[in-house]
Prior knowledge:
- The protein is α/β, with parallel strands linked by helices and 456 residues long.
- It has three domains: 2-120, no CATH class; 152-225, Immunoglobulins (Immunoglobulin-like, Sandwich); 239-438, Alpha-Beta Barrel (TIM Barrel).
- Helix content is 41%, strand content 15%.
- α18 (277-286) packs across α20.
- The radius of gyration is 60 Å and the shape is elongated.
- The protein starts with a helix and ends in an 18-residue tail after the last strand.
Amino acid sequence: MRKKLLITALFLCVMLSAWACGKDGGDNSPSPTGANEAVTPTAEATPTPEVTANPETTPTPETTPTSEATATPEATSAPEATPTPETTLTPEATPTSTATPTPKATPTPEATPTPKATPTAKATPTPKATPTTKATPTPTGTERRKDSDPPTITLEGDEVVTLEGGVWYKEPGFTATDKKDGDLTKSVKVEGEVKYWHVGTYTLKYSVKDSDGNVATAKRTVVVKARELPEPIDPGPMTIYLTFDDGPSGYTQQLLDVLAKYDVKATFFVTHNHKEADDMIIAEHAAGHTVAIHTNTHDYSKLYKSEKAYFDDMNRMADIIEDLIGERPAIIRFPGGSSNTVSKKYSKGIMTKLTQDMNELGILYFDWNVDSRDASSDSPKNSTKWWDPLVNNVINGIKNRTKNGKFSVVLQHDVKKFSVAAVEDIIKWGLENGYTFKALDLTTPTTGGVHQKVAN
């Protein structure tokens, strides 16, 4: 700033000297050319606009000398004083041009660090601050307004279900809905197990959680109870129960015809392994015979794997029979009988458990106390052949039972033609010797050797 003032003062001194010299020369007639040349420096020396930049540097007190420097208008009287020839001093005055480091003095742009102040733009890390958008996602807003109402679980069927006599538990179903999430049925968790092969009370708990963490629960009680059985009635030793396993088959109709001929009732422990099964089961029931459960598959490896495996198979067959004849059987016969040892290969002690389960549930299981041996190793492999020993095996077995005061339960298989063919001779002998033929029912005693000794 001082430098500018010195330059301005120097310029004024030069101008005043020039004016004084002109006055001493006595030529008062100003030269227009000299005047013009004298005035032009003032234009160059007009640092006033440059000084005005000082307001940006805001040292306004120091810029006040510029108002004194504006005496340059007084120097405009120089035209009167300066004669043209001597005005050549103006080149000396041209130091103003050299003195025009005013451009250098223009650090005002440097002084104007406002661009430098633009770091405010850098300081405006609003983009970096944009994590606020991440930190404040819409969900967070909705969390504040989250649904506080829990879902609703609706149980289909009864809240208390009663099962009788080993009938398996089938889940009646349920639904779950939520105002916000809609259908949540697939998300429902069910805790608990119904061991329908054991008498007792079981609780199933249903629960579901919505996206806001609200939980709904429901409960179902399942009561497993034993079937109430009538009192057994001893039929006496002159009673014969003909029983047939593993059918129906292509020979069953022939058997039904023989039974009908003599008006004899029998018991069929059925499977579902043959194409004739459905029609024959209906025909057996329609003729007044007892339709009982043997097995759905007759696959020992599946049947005797566990208690549940056995009861599941039993109930599948029971469902089939009930669908066909409208009644659910209450009598069963174990494949291989309760004394079989094959089951050991699949589950040790399984027959002990199953026989206890049947007694606990009120399910009657029947073995036999007279064996025709039609399934023994010495019987014909070709079932269509006649086998003489069969009739004698049955007759001798019945005689032994009678001697001991017991009724007879005869085992045969209607999947073997020779066994079916022998039935008529057995019936004839029995009727001729005063025996009565009956079908097993819930009043038939399971005593008298009908239950064999369990060996597993």
